[in-house]
Design brief:
Blueprint: E1 5-6, E2 16-20, H1 22-25, E3 31-37, E4 42-46, E5 50-58, E6 61-65, E7 69-73, E8 87-90, E9 95-100, E10 104-112, E11 120-122, E12 128-132, E13 139-145, E14 155-161, E15 166-167, E16 172-173, E17 186-194, E18 199-205, E19 212-218, E20 222-225, E21 232-233, E22 239-247, E23 256-257
Antiparallel strand pairs: 1-20, 2-3, 3-10, 4-9, 5-8, 5-10, 6-7, 6-9, 8-11, 12-13, 13-14, 14-22, 15-21, 16-23, 17-20, 17-22, 18-19, 18-21
Length: 271
């Protein structure tokens, strides 16, 4: 099985710092790329047989597709401003170009498309938010592209977890095609840390022990979750942001808790 931790590297000639594909990950659905561009730099891609969700993690840009011309979108210079992001949905058999107007951190989220939808802007006011958990298991979520909004395969969210808290916890999984009990969804975690010299711990493990990896994810690393449970733990002094991309054959987020830790969801914890 491919390594689950993809380390950040400095931008290459195209500005790319992360490249996860079904081929590199050894799975079928999720693709994930990150670009860091300087003002005036541009990237463009044909979407081919994939749908794409562009997430402006930080910075401002002009974005164009075959049907959209979106000048000067973007409102936050760091994800830790905790503002909702700007994003753009682009269907398959389309194309996009992104021109940076400031330093730009751009996530390109990909999954199989069926050309069932139109390109559209996902503005901050279109994005729902919610807080989850209690006690030392609290996090805040921006639902960028949830299952209630049009797309063929992609689910995209970003999550904030304060120092000393756990996240994606109690441990849960979504690796069986058994809806509505559970759906098969591959997943990537793009980690950002504040201050940036910190790290978080993430464990990916299956009940049968086929996978059992514990990783220190530093700023701008990506953890790949092909299956199994996948909790995250922060350290004192360091706040966590991660951008999640999920996709599978059924575009529903149906998961099951690991029974041993499900008691953390009960009224007995955190009151």
């Amino acid at each position: 099985m491919p390594k689950l931790l993809s380390k950040y590297h400095s931008p290459d000639d195209a500005g790319q710092t992360q490249l996860i594909s079904p081929e590199t990950a050894g799975w079928k659905y999720v693709g994930f790329e990150v670009f860091e561009l300087k003002a005036g730099e541009e990237i463009s891609q044909e979407t081919g047989d994939t749908e794409v969700c562009l997430v402006l993690v930080a910075g401002k840009a002009d974005v164009k597709t075959n049907t959209l011309d979106l000048p000067a979108i973007g409102d936050r210079m760091s994800p830790f401003e905790r503002k909702k992001p700007y994003a753009v949905y682009v269907p398959n058999e389309d194309q996009f170009s992104v021109t940076a107007l400031t330093d730009l951190e751009l996530a390109v989220c990909k999954a199989p498309g069926k050309k069932g939808h139109q390109a559209r802007l996902i503005a901050p006011e279109d994005i729902g938010s919610e807080s989850r958990g209690k006690g030392f298991n609290k996090r805040h979520v921006h639902n960028i592209l949830p299952e209630t909004e049009p797309a063929d395969s992609l689910l995209v969210v970003e999550v904030y977890t304060d120092e000393g808290n756990t996240s994606s916890y109690p441990s849960h999984k979504h690796d069986q095609d058994n809806a509505p009990h559970e759906t098969y969804l591959e997943e990537t975690y793009y980690h950002r840390i504040d201050p940036p010299q910190g790290f978080v711990f993430q464990r990916v493990y299956t009940e049968d022990g086929e996978i059992d990896e514990s990783m220190a994810a530093y700023d701008k690393d990506v953890v790949q979750v092909p299956k199994g449970y996948h909790p995250v733990a922060t350290l004192a002094g360091y706040n966590s942001y991660y951008l999640n991309v999920m996709a599978g054959p059924d575009r529903r987020w149906c998961f099951v808790w690991e029974e041993a830790h499900n008691w953390v969801n009960s009224p007995a914890y955190g009151e």
